[in-house]
User: Fold Amine oxidase from Streptosporangium lutulentum.
Amino acid sequence: MNYRDLKTERPEPGESPKERVDRELNELLQGLRVSATGVQVLFAFLLVLPFQSRFSEMGPLGHRLFFVALLSGALASVCFIAPAAQHRLLFRTSLKEKMLRRANRIGIVGLIFLMVSMATAVALVVETVIDDVAAVIFSGVVALTAAWLWLLQPIIDLHRLRTSRGGRPSR
Assistant:
């Protein structure tokens, strides 16, 4: 899918193309700030976990889950912070629309890493408290719910939008 082909956002009345890009970039950065806060709380929990006394009692599965959760949480943080960092570096350039498209893609990748981190963190806790089977079930529920709400529903909406327009890109 091409971002240009899926534009559904219309300019506000009296809004110039530059104003539209500025508004869309601001809205995207605000959304990423919300996601970044969530991943930072999860990441902080994961960073202190190895220093807890019972961490060494976890088996090999628990340690693997921890490292997957930690790595994916770190990568989600990088993705959610990247658009703001790039905005600082590219401020007052003619690259805002490019930055908007890139930030959108990076944000989607960040959501995928966050989904993995959340699901594996849940699996880690459930595996420690209950057992391996429950860990698979509960983390699967988290992963499937996030995949549905964050990715699949919007993709279905975009597909329906394209179909209702006869497959033509909006102008």
Q: What stands out?
A: The chain has one domain: 16-164. The helical segments are 17-48, 60-89, 96-129, 132-164. Confidence is low (pLDDT under 50) at residues 1-6.
